[in-house]
Amino acid sequence: MNLKSVLEKRKPLLLWVVLIALVLTAWIALHAALISWDGFADTYSSTEPSDAAVVLGNQVFANATPGDLLEGRLKKALSLYHAGAVRNIVCSGGKGPANVWEADVMRAWLIARGVDASKIVCDYEGKDSYCTAREAKKIFDIRGWKSAVIVSHFTHISRCKLAFRRFGLTELRSAHADFSPGDFKAFPHEIIGYYYYWIRN
Q: What is the mean pLDDT of residues 85-109?
């Protein structure tokens, strides 16, 4: 059997493979566009302040300083607080290198820049976005808070909103940290993570 005959027999299969690849590519591109639109569309308001900003953790160093991504999120939360867009700040993050807690690093960074310590709540169970949403619900219920501003990078906002709503926090706004070209590297992780959260119980 020559190559031409093989290709002729497999042509329908090849066409299906190409079609599926095109559909998946289009779907991924559309989802990336929607993530970007949602992530860049900050919705906080200084005239209608939210109960708290929830800052998603990220890398901290052994010397108890935040990495660049986390510092970007903290800067955004700080600006919201000083602008009167949020009344409180929830610092959510697990344990980093050398047993340094992300939440403690975040708290210290904010206090050093003028945030009242009584306005900061630490969540030490926020090892991922889903856990942050779960713990935020507990924190909000205990304090009688209802409205939240999710603070993270633009690619991360949609997945966080999905998780927060799953746990019953529906009065949501968002604010993204300053953009950097490296943010685009997070797209594959965020797209896969979104659907994982969507089906997760």
A: 95
Distance separating alpha carbons of residues 151 and 52, to the nearest angstrom: 10
Residue 32 lies in a domain: no
Nearest residue to 41 via CA among 134, 172, 185, 133: 172
- Judge contact between 105 and 143, C-beta under 8 A: no
Residue 101: beta bridge partners? Answer: 95
Q: Is residue 10 part of a domain?
A: no
Residue 4 has pLDDT above 70, yes or no: no
Assess if residue 171 is contained within a domain: yes
Domain extent at residue 45 = 39-199
The average pLDDT across 28-38 equals: 92
Lowest mean per-residue pLDDT among 34-38, 51-55, 178-182: 178-182
Q: Residue 129 maps to which CATH number? A: 3.40.50.620
d(CA 39, CA 56): 14
pTM of the model: 0.88
What confidence tier does 18 reach under pLDDT thresholds 50, 70, 90? confident
Q: How many domains does the chain have?
A: 1
Q: Checking DSSP bridges between strand 50-56 and strand 171-176, what pairing results, if any?
A: unpaired
